Amino acid sequence: MTTSRRAPRPTAPVRRPQVADFRDRAEVAAGRDLGNAVALHEWSVQEFRDFWRLFLDWAGPAWEGSADPVCTGDDVETAVFFPAVSLNYAENLLRPLPGVDDGAVCLTSVHGDGSRDRWTRAELREDVDRTATALARLGVGAGDRVVVVAANNGHAVVAALATAALGATLSSGMPDMGPAALLGRFTQVEPALMALDRTGATGWDGTDGDLLDQVVAGLPTVRTVVVLDVLPLPSLRGVRVVRLADLLSDLGPDTPRTPWPRMPFNDPLFVMFSSGTTGPPKAMVHGIGGTLLEHLKEHRLHGDLDARDTLYFQTTTAWMMWNWQLSALAVGAGIVLYDGPVPGPETLWRLAAEERVTVFGTSPAHQQLSQDTGLRPAEVFDLSALRAVMSTGSVLHDWQFDWFAAAVGPQPLQSISGGTDIIGCFVLGHPELPVVRGRSQALSLGLDVAALDAGGHAVVGPPGELVCRRPFPSRPVRFLRDPDGSRLHGAYYTEHPGVWTHGDVVDLAPDGTARVHGRSDGVLNIDGIRIGPAEIYRILKGLPEIAQAVAVEQRHPTTPGATRLVLLVQLHGGAVLDGELERRIRTTLRSQATAAHVPALVLAVPEVPLTHSGKVSEKAARDTVNGDRVVNVDALRNPGSLAGITAALRTATERTALPVPEPRSGSGRPPAAPRPAVPPGDTAAVTAVVSTIWRDLGVVPHAGITDFFDLGGTSRQSMTLLRRLQLELDADVTMEQFLADPTIPGLAAAVAAAADATAVLLLAAGNPAAPPLFLLNDAWGGVEVYRTLAELLVGVGPVYGVRADLVHPDGSRKPIDDLADEHAATIVAARPEGPLRLAGFSFGGLVAFETARRLRAAGREVEFLGLLDPLPPEDSLPPVRRRLHRLTGEIGALIPGLADRPLRDVVRQRLRPETRPADQQALDRSGAVYARHRLQHYDGRATYFRARRRIPVSGHFMSAWRAAAPRLEVVSVPGPHHDLLAGRHVVALAVQMSLALRTAAQLRRS
């Protein structure tokens, strides 16, 4: 592992996509023209043996044996691929590759605190080799099973690849899943060893009865726990606990390394889990060769990944995309991991920018959150390295392609879909094809994907059941605890005999594009997280009041395209769904599973729908909850149960004042209705607005339950909530403030606290011995805009933000002079003695300038005054320059890169001022106050940080500032005015500002 910074990857000449080189070889093998993507796919499935043999030769993985036979039969269920081939997964990921620098960084593990661990290919190979030797000395070898419980970090990767190197089988999960979910998976694995990383997890110390103790007690086959982290070693009864670092330190230079055996192609590599609709999760065993070949194909032919690429995919160790991203090492690409929190959508875009990610993997839920919060990533972050974005986890809607094109850029947005079942994709991207809005670009090469209608006939155009009609190597080789193969057969081969039935609804077009519509079975997909109802039912069995439960996915009643989890409960006689029981249901699901398992709505129903065989009909329940027609009522033993569900839903929607959901058509997102500004001091009005926002999100207190998250609120909704508060109440409420009391009264109080005119907020700790830096409020009165800048400043004291109430009690706007008087008093109270440092951006810069004048007039030393690109107030300019200044502003609003909004928004809002959002209206009011101010003389030093991108004809009329501040020093910083504090430019600004602060301190001392 290296701590050095990543060297930039060498640029290579532009060349044809790898799939074009492969097509040349395929045309020779086929003896005919395969000049387009559809023709190549047709050949790859019609002659699938030729395709897979050719791909094995072309891709060149390390293997031994014979490639004949390629496949032993034509039956999808029983055919076996490459039975005479042997290979090692870890060897293929880590071996030296032609043209790939062994000293280049290939693995970057980013942590929540911003620190990073980096490995070069040579370092990663060495660490995996040493770890494999250490595990072998513990008795791990081919045929053993190992589980890794860790967050998405580099240490988990090393442990996983060391396990694979020895020929053992791996399964992984994360501590946050909780004991019930982990044991639901790992009891089937029967592991001999557990590798554990507790970094960032709570309740995993290994004390009697805690989470680790519960998990280990439930896994009697575990002989050893290997601790990957640096926390104190846990104490576990009857289990050996060792630290990996200690095992490695015992390896001397002469200790022989354990060889990495090449194993049969279909020997087990990963045990993966899908969320089944009944019973425990399916434990799918994926083979070494099928996994590697499928991933090599997807990475090289569909993703065009090579050594020039850096891949980041938003995933956890519990999802197949984690295993999928590991395989990118086999093509020489670098991968980036992140194990920290994601408090907002900007976190991952910033990560992509900082790590120069070329292929970014995300989800529709993350993109929707980015859109809902008004984020335009390309305007905030430097995404110049990004060449493609992949999205999976749920359906990617048409409008999300529109948002992506406007807010991110021209890069292809590739909607990919497949599943844990095949550890790969059925539909995905293609480097030679354009993106079609709302659709996946191509069918996966070598996979004979079709859509079947109700009669089992293949259709093109209408939606149908997604099937695969010919054998492919990445099918599970078996299920665990399925000795006769009946569970595997029942999962994929009974509905349409002779083909693989995947459980998705898809429509295919003649051009080879596809649209996946969602699941055809009972698996829930809530905000991109797949949940098996059986997981919920197992947990709820512990609540004696519940006789039967049905979990269904409901189209969200107020958010088009979103879904939410609804739980129907049939109670034992005498039990009542009151606030106490509902609270227990929610807290039990959260503590024993995850927050995603907590329902948005709990309904007590007289009975749940049952088939004549006594099986719960989740489909009938789901259709009823969504207001859809239940197609086969005759198949129900108790059709009257549907009326009970409808009545319970009507009662709940009346209680929450939300509309009863109706079937939806179309994909447009209706604009939110604008709200009038509310004075933050009006408690009743603030509470009303907060309540309305909660209701709009479908989170409504009832039955004594008031906590946002107990009511089913999600982290994504919490970000939307805080953004709405910022727009509608001008309140800069932080996530920490919200989490401290996530109730309506608590949030209303946080709004009041955020609006406190004299509130001083610590933005960065800094050196307590150095003078503090005060950053003065922005045009909305807040200071959160400075947080990133504050955290990036180097060699400074504590950094504080000074917030302001911009409105007088009578509703009039405070002039700059009044704000400066208030801030001077606040700063003196916070720092009675010693030198002072002030700064502000734009509106805040003008306030800082006037505040500094008052402080110097009162005899205080202002060591540093930073003016972050404030425009000159119009009333401080002569008439001719004032008109030119206005003209400059008009032109700047229309030029891409200089404007803070898209041109269409500027034009629409000029023509229809009532469409201007709340934040723009607030900015207009602050702008009017700003324009009326007249600059006065300032005799102290000041540093003006001037945005480099501007209209050349007029600039900022620096003469106006120099006349007011003769000792002004101007520093040029990159970017346009509105982008100085954004991700792509704030680093450069922080560097220049740190230098200026250091110079100011030296001047004072001299």
In short:
The chain has 1006 residues and is an alpha/beta fold. α26 (816-830) packs across α27.
What would your notes on this structure say?
It is globular and about 90 Å long. 34% of the residues lie in helices and 18% in strands. Helix 1 (18-30) packs across helix 3 (48-59) and helix 19 (618-625) packs parallel to helix 20. The chain has a seven-stranded mixed sheet with strand order 4-3-14-13-15-16-17, with helices on both faces. It has a seven-stranded mixed sheet with strand order 32-34-33-35-36-37-38, with helices on both faces. Strands 6-5-7-8-9 form a five-stranded parallel sheet, with helices on both faces. The model is unreliable at 3-13, 658-676, 894-909 and 952-956 (pLDDT under 50). The chain has 32 helices and 38 strands. With 1006 residues, the chain is an alpha/beta fold. Strand 13, helix 11 and strand 14 (334-338) form a beta-alpha-beta unit.
Strand content: 15-25%
The backbone outline, from C-alpha atoms, is: globular
Mean pLDDT: 86
Give the number of DSSP strands: 38
Uncertain stretches: 3-13, 658-676, 894-909, 952-956
Fraction in helix: 25-40%
Q: What distance separates the N and C termini?
A: 45 Å
Largest sheet: 7 strands, mixed
Strand order of the largest sheet: 4-3-14-13-15-16-17
Structural class by secondary-structure content = alpha/beta
* C-alpha-based Rg, rounded: 31 Å
Helix tally equals 32
